[in-house]
Amino acid sequence: MAIKLEKMSETPNVALVTIDRPEKANSLNPEHIYELASVWKELASDREVRCVVLTGSGERVFCAGMDMRETVPAARRLVEGKTLDPKTFEGLKNVSIALLAGFDLKKPLICAINGHARAGGFDLMLSSELRVSVPEATFALEEVALGLYPTGNATVLLPRQIGWANAHEILLTAKPFSAERALEIGLINRLAVREKLLDSAFALATAISQNGPLAVRETRFGVRELLGMDLKSAYKRQEEIGRPLRASQDAKEGQLSFLENRQPVFKGL
């Protein structure tokens, strides 16, 4: 399988997903689209996993998006009403889920960007909450250069994440830019040398997974919901989200552990 899901014993609450197709720039053909979508569905329902790290295999590309040599002909056959084999059909049906475009993973995602992030790879990165990149990575959304509309996460999420002017420069010029520039405009959190990339991503994931799982889940949910609200509605809604947590067992444990000067033992209750 080109999509690997691992759970390490030393970090039981953190899962690692690797796109393992370096000979094809970690691009996704219909079969791998289906595999990745299946992994996201599995992780979304896994109560033990509190945070997910996504990376690519090799030292050149994080993910180049769709494998155009396979997905484009298949999509054309579908549009023309021609028969597709079941795996190809299911793959094309699951593109949005694979790119996390409108599909909620229900837990934080951290991208460990090991190389170039292009097209659908860029979309996957946009779906994540935190991003660590090697300095030599480059980033680009090249759809308009191909006469296409970027239908993944780009036009929906990018202007919300880095602002109007920078988002339009990326979307409309289709020009690649460096990891240093990505850091400058707030597209990524930090740079890490290749040898420390996964360590840096897992340090963030471990810090998240050690916090109250209910609080992490609802805080992540709240940010996404409140972003599109006016201020009055947002303040009202955040109180509605936060109030039940104050009565949770995890909140009581967190306060007690603070008073007793010890690490809390959260149970997600």
Second CATH tier, the architecture of the largest domain: Alpha-Beta Complex
Provide the spatial order of strands within the biggest beta sheet. 1-2-3-5-7-10
Overall 3D form:
globular
The CATH superfamily name of the largest domain is 2-enoyl-CoA Hydratase, Chain A, domain 1
CATH class of the largest domain: Alpha Beta
Give the ordered list of helices and strands. Answer: EEHEEHHHEEHEEHHEHEHHHH
Uncertain spans:
none
Number of strands: 10
Q: What is the first-to-last residue Cα distance?
A: 36 Å
Main β sheet profile: 6 strands, mixed
Q: What does this protein look like?
A:
The protein is of the alpha/beta class. The chain has 2 domains: 3-209, 2-enoyl-CoA Hydratase, Chain A, domain 1 (Alpha-Beta Complex), CATH 3.90.226; 213-259. 46% of the residues lie in helices and 14% in strands. The chain contains 12 helices and 10 strands. It has helices spanning 30-44, 68-79, 86-93, 95-98, 120-126, 154-162, 164-173, 179-184, 197-209, 213-226, 231-246, 249-259; strands spanning 3-7, 14-19, 51-56, 61-63, 109-113, 116-118, 130-133, 138-140, 177-178, 190-191. The strands form 2 sheets. Strands 1-2-3-5-7-10 form a 6-stranded mixed beta sheet, with helices on both faces. A 4-stranded mixed beta sheet has the order 4-6-8-9. A hairpin with a 6-residue loop joins strand 1 (3-7) and strand 2. Helix 1 crosses helix 3 and helix 10 runs antiparallel to helix 11. The longest helix has 16 residues, at 231-246. It is globular and about 65 Å long. The two termini are 36 Å apart. The mean pLDDT is 91.
